[in-house]
Amino acid sequence: MAAYIVFIKEREHDAAAMAEYGPKAGQSLGGHPGKPLVFYGAIETLEGPEALGSVIVEFPDMDAARAWYNSPAYQDARKHRFQGADYRVFLTQGL
User: Fold this and answer.
1) What is the dotted CATH code of the domain comprising 3-93?
2) pLDDT tens profile 24-67
3) Helix intervals (H) in the chain
4) Residues in Cβ contact with 12 at an 8 Å cutoff, skipping those fewer than 6 apart
């Protein structure tokens, strides 16, 4: 069953760290069956705190999503995201 990792950017505080995160995060998908569905397109917050942007990546299942998220390549990228911005990130199962 498909699974989705959802990234919601809430605040950015270091543009240089985010510039380093982006390419590394994209490259970390190499060898993983992740398919980006949403990538910082136009966003309109309808409820809750304002969101600055969002990314949604589809995987074949929860295990594949976790394998990518926990991979050494993404963990290396993630440290730059932690330095550069505040995000909410969650994994959810599709229908």
Assistant:
1) 3.30.70.100
2) 999 999 999 999 999 999 999 999 999 999 999 999 999 999 99
3) 15-28, 62-69, 72-84
4) 18, 52, 84, 85, 86
